[in-house]
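Field notebook, page 474. I keep forgetting to write these up properly, so this time I am using the form the group agreed on. The chain and the ligand, adenosine monophosphate, are recorded exactly as supplied. Prediction of the bound pose follows.
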Amino acid sequence: MTIRLYNTLTRKLEDFHPLEPGKVGFYSCGPTVYHYTHLGNLRTFLHNDFLKRMFLANGYDVRHVMNITDVGHLTNDEDDSGEDKMEKGAARDNKSVWDIAKFYKGEFMRDFNDLNMIAPTVMPHATDYIAEQIELVQKLQDLGYTYEIPGDGIYYDTSKFAAYGALTGGTLSGNRAGARVGFNDAKRNPSDFALWKYSPTDTKRQMEWDSPWGVGFPGWHAECSAMSMKLLGNHFDIHTGGEDLSRIHHANEIAQSEPITGAPWVNTWLHYSFLLDKSGEKMAKSKGEFLGMDAVRNRGYDPMVYRYFVAMGHYQSQLAFSWETMDATAKSYANLTRRVADLLASDGKPVNQGVYTKWHDDMLAAMSDNLKTASVLVLVQDFIKSADIDDATKLALVRFADDLLGLQFIDRAQKLRALENETAPAEIVALAESRATAKANRDWATADALRAEIENAGWSVLDGRDGYKIVKRV
Ligand code: AMP
Ligand code: ZN
């Protein structure tokens, strides 16, 4: 099936051609583990997961590398000034840098697993690839791309790289940093960036390493160039990240890598649009207040509801988060799950291959056409409601939709079934009986009060044409 993706580098929707038939290699900028991951970061990671599932469903052998940034990401990305986010996070939590890296990576993995994302093939930590980053800087120095700012570090001279900023159609002088407070005016060009920073002389950093230039730590951009080339080779298919990364981080990665590879480095660049907070601004860790999966879990949502919420949008459009939309999404997810639960009894019965193939191909085509996850969801709604498709075929299609979108409909439907089959204790049955009597007597106040009592005890009464059913609340 033809796969089309929007390539930031060419600003075009392009047919995807792998470097090696049947294989795809992609690198995703991962989290900086100085704080909890917020829903915006997770939106980006979910789009990586949709991308991966699309390739898997098309029969590709996928090699996915996503890094863990545990050093060198400064609070002011624009001109490599400010504090190392990791050291700042450690001071805030009153722990060592290594401890917070371990802790927040653990929290991130919990969210990652709760959201049913497929683990990357390799998840390298920047601190495990210091030698490779030093080697990268050394090579750039040998090629004449670097200069030293005494007392500060080794910088990349972007005027030496003619194609600088090609990813965003930018120019060398650009509009960066010119009017910024604290702009580092020892830099030769505003867009120059640190490759190696010296440790400060007045305070002791927790993370620092020896290098040919002195004790210090790598600039943030170096890790992604060094690790991706080490783990995916000098030329690979796709590089992904949030939309904020294209202008600086990815521009710098290209500038660091292409002088070394001497050829184009990455074929397709994918950038995912932001999740916005309720004031319409980018959700950001640095604001100090942000929503993470804990907020979702604590409010009683299944993590799949957030996954569904993200799937309803498209990666090239910003998406506004609100609890109202989450409520509406939770209802849709519960309705679909309820319908899937009714299909489970047909498991093992023969599937209509012709019908299956048609809907399967439509879903795969939507997903392969620039990751139209919302269109896949519309197809799921359509085939589930269709009166012309038998249950066994519907169930097989839901299984495929689960592979594509990772929404775990089958799993949640099975859990729902198990809960529904649980028999209610005698006192709940007695309350439900009293409620039925109250209803028959048109005593609505009593009926409502009894319903509330049943709900508070963790059960629900569902009224139907043939009387009521008592089910465990989900
Ligand atoms: P960080 O942990 O800050 O290094 O970011 C991890 C990933 O999340 C990067 O790819 C960012 O571009 C992305 N990201 C950051 N904020 C948002 C947001 N509000 N919406 C979507 N992606 C984001
Ligand atoms: Zn990166």
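OBSERVATIONS:
- The two ends are 39 Å apart (CA to CA).
- The first strand starts at residue 4 and ends at 7.
FOLLOW-UP: compare against the apo run.
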